[in-house]
Amino acid sequence: RAYNFNAGPAALPLEVLERAQAEFVDYQGTGMSIMEMSHRGAVYEGVHNEASSRLLNLLGNPEGYKVLFLQGGASTQFAMAPMNFLTEGKTAGYVKSGSWASKAIKEAKLIGNTFIAASSEENKYMSMPDVSNLVLPENTAYLHLTSNETIEGTQFHEFPDTGNIPLIADMSSDILCRPFDLTKFGLVYAGAQKNLGPSGVTVVLAREELLQNSPSHIPTVLRYDTHAENNSLYNTPPSFAIYMVNQVLKWIEEQGSLDGIEKKNREKANLLYNAIDESSGFFRGCVDATSRSTMNVTFRLGSEELEKQFIKESEKEGFVGLKGHRSVGGLRASIYNAVPYESIKALVDFMSQFQKSHG
Ligand code: PLP
């Protein structure tokens, strides 16, 4: 297997792929693949409901929360959240932390009034904004933040308390990388293709009361209440992707649930950040140490030529996906839940070799 550091779609646990392979053609003696089954049948619905309850279970089964499985990626949630919540006379607060937060803001502005509650733009998004003392007007419909900026490589390590104002989080690139208190949030969404499974399904976790009474003018398929009332079976769901999410959730349980996953992620991130910090400046971490992401590690070399050489040589050694996002350049290793410690160990060894031959 390749050493896969892709930002997304990203590595999946080998065990999950092998289990899916074993039942790919004949799902548990039914004579059909799960993807060939009706989404209205008992077998598929069993998988669908299991995925939903596993997810809530991993988060401690907080009362009054529901899971939705939607399509259109996190990008559709950038629009759907304001369409459903940013009604006349209200304004929506946004934490402007980087590339993905900016995309969410752009969509919300198309729908209604917004304001920037906190921003790290002045620091070129090399840190997460301070969200400890936010002032939110009374007519704030919600506060939106991006828990992990996939492109810049920054991550929130604490979340603000927004009281009665719903906190909405785009957790696409770090959901289930650690335990978190879902009750602090009104709604959380994530494209599955980093920590949850393959692309094609978007997971939404929300307080039930926010999934009722969407404004009447919103098209049926873009209303949260439609999907909540129909157990995410209003229209044909991405059934195979949801089946895979269920398998990934089962795998997370086997890793010691979110506490176990967090411990492994810490060890992985420490290994890589230490290698960067101990390279006497040959490798340089891009972002402020306090905002470093445990999922997307961004770093640079002394020149773009050297970075190109690094990519070229790394690819020859079986490393995939180490090039930084085209908008920021540099290097990035995405070390999501499914990336094994051994891959990071191999990367750190390669970095050390590269420094010896080019330093
Ligand atoms: N938000 C974040 C933090 C992301 O990392 C991404 C994708 O990389 C997106 C949103 C967009 O997700 P999608 O491609 O599922 O629309």
From TrEMBL:
The keyword Amino-acid biosynthesis applies. L-glutamate binds at residue 40. It is found in: Cytoplasm. Transmembrane segments: none annotated. Pathway: Amino-acid biosynthesis; L-serine biosynthesis; L-serine from 3-phospho-D-glycerate: step 2/3. Its EC number is 2.6.1.52. Residues 3-347 form the Aminotransferase class V domain. Its cofactor is pyridoxal 5'-phosphate. The keyword RNA-binding does not apply. Keywords: Amino-acid biosynthesis, Aminotransferase, Cytoplasm, Pyridoxal phosphate, Serine biosynthesis, Transferase. The modification N6-(pyridoxal phosphate)lysine is found at residue 194. One of its GO terms (molecular function) is pyridoxal phosphate binding. Gene3D superfamilies: Aspartate Aminotransferase, domain 1 (3.90.1150.10), Type I PLP-dependent aspartate aminotransferase-like (Major domain) (3.40.640.10). Homodimer. Belongs to the class-V pyridoxal-phosphate-dependent aminotransferase family. SerC subfamily. HAMAP family: SerC_aminotrans_5. Catalyzes the reversible conversion of 3-phosphohydroxypyruvate to phosphoserine and of 3-hydroxy-2-oxo-4-phosphonooxybutanoate to phosphohydroxythreonine. This is Phosphoserine aminotransferase. The gene is serC.
